[in-house]
Amino acid sequence: xIALLDDYFKIxxxxxxxxxxxxxxxxxxxxxxxxxxxxxxxVSPGVCNIQMIKECAGLLxxxxxxxxxxxxxxxxxxxxxxxxxxxxxxxxxxxETDEVYRVCATVRDDTTVxxxxxxxxxxx
Amino acid sequence: MTEIRGxxxxxxxPQREPVIMIDAFYGATESExxxxxxxxxxxxxxxxxxxxxxxxxxxxxxxxxxxxxYKAKAGNRPVPAGYIAEVRKFRIYFxxxxxxxxxxxxxxxxxxxxxxxxxxxxxxxxxVAVRGQMKIYIKPS
Lengths: 124, 141
Description:
The complex is a heterodimer of chains A (124) and B (141).
Chain A: E1 9-17, E2 20-27, H1 46-61, E3 65-75, E4 86-94, E5 101-108, E6 113-123
Antiparallel strand pairs in A: 1-2, 2-4, 3-6, 4-5, 5-6
Chain B: E1 4-5, H1 7-10, E2 24-28, E3 32-38, E4 46-47, E5 50-51, H2 53-74, E6 82-92, E7 101-112, E8 115-124, E9 127-138
C-alpha cells in the first residue's frame, strides 16, 4: 500500500462500540505532500483524508480495499497539520457479503466536522 | 488553441511538487475543458504500478482548478486557490497503470457563490476509468 499510513498520519487509538469504531489519529506536518499543497500554506488535501478513511477501513476489515464508489464526500472545513493535527475518524462499515463494504465515516474533532464520507469499498 | 503543458500548467494551478496531478490542458469552451496526465512511476499516488483512487480524485480536482486558472488568466485576474467541497456519485471503474495517459473532460454545470458543480469523465485509451461529480470552491482572489 501507499505509505500514507504511518507517514501521512498515525493511529493513536482505536475503539469500537457496537457498530461504530473511532480512530484517533495525528497528522504528520512533515509529510512531503505539504511542500506542494500549498507552498507556504500547508493544507491537508481532501484526497489524502479520503485515503486515510480507506486505510482505516482496511484495518477494520483486515483486507486490501479498492474504493470503487464515492456516493458523497463532503468537505466542510479545512484541515491543516498545524492547526488541526489531532482528528477522530468515526466509522461504520456494513457489508453482509464479502463483495462490497459500505462505509460511512466522519472526520472531526471536538468542535468541528471536517468531512462526511459515504462510499463503497471492495476487497482487492 | 495550442495545448498548455509544463511551465504553462504551473501558471494555472497553485499546487506544486509532489502533488501536481495534471500535465496538459488541451482546450476549453465557456463551460467545458479537456485535460490530461501522463502517469509516471514517481507519482506520489502510484502504488505497485497503479494510479490509485486519491490520485484520480486529485487529477479531476486539479483539472477544475486549471480551468478556473485558465479563465482567470484570460480575464487578467490572479490564479485563484480552490478546494474540493464535495465529491459525489463518483465511480472508479479501474485503476490506470503507471505509464498510462489520462484524458479528462470536465463540464461545469453551475457556478453559485464561488462553488462550481461539475461532471468529469476520465478515459484511458478511450475506456472510461472514472465518472463523477465534484463541487469545487474557488476562493475569490
